């Protein structure tokens, strides 16, 4: 067996791992995509709820219904190199207040 054969044999698992990691990274939604998904969930559910109740109740219901999307967004945010889980936990109450205000204002205030 030649050196070239040994090199190819040794490099194959590493290349396979790189390809799998690359594919997984491409499949995982980005923070921005998860944020957009959360916003879309809030908009959709608020629009449904506001037909049946007041704007305040509709906003609260949308926030409750979209909790899984919110969690996915916050989890992705906590995994970013800029913030950690403690930072996310600390700002979550302010984020929810801002989201509630954003829904009640009809999205006219600063973007969520």
Q: Any overview of this molecule?
A:
This protein is mainly α. It has helices at residues 3-27, 31-50, 55-65, 67-78, 85-104. The chain has a domain at 29-104. α2 packs across α3 (55-65). Mean pLDDT is 81; it is low at 11-26.
Structure keywords:
mainly alpha; single chain; 112 residues; elongated
The N- to C-terminal Cα distance equals 61 Å
H/E order of the elements? HHHHH
The helix/strand class is mainly alpha
Mean pLDDT: 81
Number of contiguous helices = 5
Number of strands: 0
Gyration radius over CA: 21 Å
Strand content: under 5%
**Uncertain runs:** 11-26
Query: The biggest beta sheet, please?
Result: none
Silhouette: elongated
**Helical content band:** over 70%
Summed up, what is this model?
The protein is mainly α. It has helices at 3-27, 31-50, 55-65, 67-78, 85-104.
């Amino acid at each position: 067996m030649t050196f070239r054969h040994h090199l190819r044999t040794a490099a194959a698992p590493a290349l396979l791992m790189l390809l799998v990691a690359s594919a997984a990274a491409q499949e995982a939604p980005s923070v921005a995509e998860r944020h957009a998904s959360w916003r879309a969930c809030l908009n959709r559910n608020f629009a449904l709820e506001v037909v049946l109740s007041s704007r305040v109740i509709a906003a609260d219901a949308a926030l409750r219904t979209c909790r899984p999307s919110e969690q996915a967004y916050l989890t992705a945010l906590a995994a970013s190199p800029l913030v950690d889980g403690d930072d996310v936990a600390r700002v979550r109450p302010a984020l929810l207040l801002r989201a509630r205000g954003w829904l009640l204002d009809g999205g006219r205030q600063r973007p969520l």
